[in-house]
Amino acid sequence: MKLSRCPVCHTNIHLDQLVADDAGRQLLGQFSRMNYKLGGNMVAYLALFRPTKQDLSNSKALSLVQETLALTGNHNALAEALEQTVASLQQNRINGNGKQLTNHNYLRKVLTTRLGQIAAETPAGSTIEYKAQTVTNPEEDRRLFEAHMLKLGGRIIEVNHE
After folding, report:
1. What is the per-residue pLDDT across 84-132, written as a single tens digit (0 to 9) for each?
2. Are 48 and 89 in contact (CB under 8 A)?
3. What are residue 135's DSSP bridge partners?
4. 141 Cα distance to chain centroid
5. What does the DSSP assignment read for the chain?
6. DSSP string covering 125-151
7. Apex CA 92: angle with CA 87 and CA 97, to 5°?
8. pLDDT at position 40 over 60
9. Dihedrals φ, ψ of 8, to 5°?
10. Partners of 60 in the β-ladder
């Protein structure tokens, strides 16, 4: 099924060819669940892993996407970190210092910095997300637990941990 033409080389893009293998189908599925900013930045980030003289295979691209998404559940912060990583590494390539990426270490540093900035901007007592984990203050956590238990009709029994 002819989808459209490539905006770069003007060859036909066929949807059935994009999903010819299992990794291609899964990769397309991953991108279809991303918002515009995350998807665009992810494609640019994947290009940093592409070997100079060959294409990046669908299976390698799929594993890179899955590894990248596993870094955090905060997709807005991830999109910003990807954008910053790509801009920085592309500038290194322009200056002649850039190489093909082999791991996510640089992105992890950028993402950790970005999530730290988000945490610093978040008011005290509110819930923040860090690497797919929710961190709350103990009082808020206890209040939410009690409210949920009461809503379900459960009892709250105090236990002494001495």
Report:
1. 999 988 887 777 776 788 899 999 999 988 887 766 665 555 554 444 4
2. yes
3. 128
4. 27
5. -EEEE-TTT--EEEHHHHTSSHHHHHHHHHHHTS-HHHHHHHHHHHHTTS-TTSPPPHHHHHHHHHHHHTT-S-HHHHHHHHHHHHHHHHHHHHTT------SSHHHHHHHHHHHHHHHHHSPTTS-EEETTEEE--HHHHHHHHHHHHHHHT---------
6. TS-EEETTEEE--HHHHHHHHHHHHHH
7. 160
8. yes
9. -95, -55
10. none
Contact criterion met (CB below 8 Å) for 78 and 42: no
pLDDT digits (tens, 9 = 90+) for 68-80: 999 988 899 999 9
Residue type, 116: G
| Rounded CA separation 116/114 (Å) | 5
Q: Structure tokens of 132? A: 């797919």
C-alpha to C-alpha distance for 156 and 145, rounded to whole angstroms: 9
Q: What is the pLDDT of residue 78?
A: 93
| Contact of 104 with 68, CB cutoff 8 Å | yes
The residue with greater pLDDT, 57 or 122, is 57
Query: Are the C-beta atoms of residues 27 and 65 closer than 8 Å to each other?
Result: yes
In a 10 Å sphere around its CB, with 0-12 CB exposed, 13-18 middle and 19+ buried, how is residue 24 labelled?
Answer: middle
